[in-house]
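User: quick one, sequence for these tokens?
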């Protein structure tokens, strides 16, 4: 699969703007006008297009980082501008028209998509990302032990929050809005380990590599891990997307972006130690390259459209069940409308 993705997506040449030579004929003015019109008709509307891509600096964004570092965007003939975004602002940037494409946690996209977020998912990129941590002497060993407890999260829309709710709900713990058996409390990401240490919460849900770093530095126990625990370890967490207008008006730009991201993701799968080194060395990601590489090795970076589509269909009804998605949302229609199959993509 990896070899197919890397080799199958070759660079594409941009059509020339050069007008066709006109036949000699009387009237130089008429000949020039004909030549000019012909050139305009053959001009490539995508030739000077610059795709604005949002990024946040997370470890799992490795395909985006490597698409730049290893020239996968360049191979596709795609001109890009990377726009650094503050944590949690990706969808605001889409709505404001600041970015044309990006990389996002799939579960966190479902509710915004139901509210009209104007994007199309083009491929899934990898599994993993989320962990739930507790103190080693907490007495919490199973989902049922969370009943009556508080869980710290960075926001009520973040992927770790959704993941924690999914695990608890899947194991019979009530996490609906009505009569919930577990309380979720918001803290800044940096303050979550301290909140757990001070007893303000009984557990915390975090993204990697922050979760792994917090576990090591504070001697915490990982009780749920989406990269390792069944059935979540095989469920794709992150995906590539483009704005609806890009998919509609510039489908080849969207396809070039998708191919580059797929090739980069496949390359990450085979070179995780090097990826972690490049990310830290070139300041894409903070942290220790060795630790980051260990985390990356728990993720599956084989890109898959079908797997992303499949997990959307699993998570959306779960969010509806726990009250995070309106009950009147047609989840099947939402799933179908949120994805797009582009031409000349080695889909799996």
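Assistant:
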């Amino acid at each position: 699969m990896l070899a197919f993705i890397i080799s199958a997506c070759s660079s594409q040449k941009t059509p020339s703007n050069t007008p066709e030579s006109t036949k000699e004929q009387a009237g130089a003015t008429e000949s020039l006008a004909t030549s000019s019109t012909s050139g305009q008709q053959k001009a490539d509307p995508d030739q000077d297009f610059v795709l604005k891509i949002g990024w946040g600096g997370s470890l799992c964004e490795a395909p985006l980082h490597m698409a730049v570092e290893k020239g996968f965007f360049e191979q596709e003939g795609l001109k890009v501008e990377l726009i650094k975004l503050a944590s949690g602002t990706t969808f605001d940037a889409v709505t404001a028209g600041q970015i044309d494409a990006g990389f996002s946690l799939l579960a966190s996209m479902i509710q915004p998509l139901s509210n009209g977020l104007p994007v199309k998912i083009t491929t899934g990129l990898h599994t993993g990302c989320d962990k739930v941590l507790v103190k080693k002497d907490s007495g919490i060993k199973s989902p049922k032990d969370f009943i009556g407890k508080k869980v710290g999260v960075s926001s009520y829309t973040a992927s770790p929050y959704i993941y924690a709710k999914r695990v608890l709900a899947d194991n019979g713990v009530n996490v609906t809005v009505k009569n919930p058996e577990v309380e979720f409390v918001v803290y800044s990401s940096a303050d979550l380990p301290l909140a757990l240490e001070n007893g303000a919460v009984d557990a915390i849900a975090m993204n990697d590599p922050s979760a792994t770093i917090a576990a090591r530095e504070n001697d915490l126990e990982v009780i749920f891990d989406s990269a390792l625990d069944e059935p979540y370890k095989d469920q794709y967490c992150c995906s590539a997307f483009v704005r609806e207008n890009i998919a509609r008006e510039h489908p080849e730009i969207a396809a070039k972006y998708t191919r580059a991201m797929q090739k980069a993701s496949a390359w990450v799968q085979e070179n995780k130690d090097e990826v972690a080194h490049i990310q830290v060395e070139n300041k894409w990601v903070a942290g220790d390259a060795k630790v980051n590489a260990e985390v990356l090795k728990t993720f599956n970076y084989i890109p898959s459209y079908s797997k992303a589509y499949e997990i959307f269909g699993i998570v959306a009804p779960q969010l509806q069940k726990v009250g995070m998605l309106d009950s009147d949302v047609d989840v099947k229609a939402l799933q179908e409308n949120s994805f797009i199959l582009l031409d000349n993509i080695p889909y799996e």
